[in-house]
Amino acid sequence: MNIWAVFLPEEGLSEDAYESGLMLVDDESRTRIKRFYHKKDSYRCLLGRLLPRLLLRQHGVPVKEAELSRTSTGKPYVSTPHLERTVGFNVSHDNEYVVMAFQTVALDAEKESSIQSKLEPQTKKKVVMDVTNIGIDVMKVALPRFEKSFPSFVQSISDTLTTLEQRTLLEISDPNDALQRLYLVWTLKEAYTKALGLGLGFDFKRIEVDVNGHKITVDNNVPCGWEFIVFILKAPSGAIYQVAVARQSIQASSALDGHVEFRGVVDTSSDSDLSKWFRHYYAAPFISSCTADK
Question: Domain 4'-phosphopantetheinyl transferase, which positions (predicted)?
Answer without folding.
Answer: 134-213
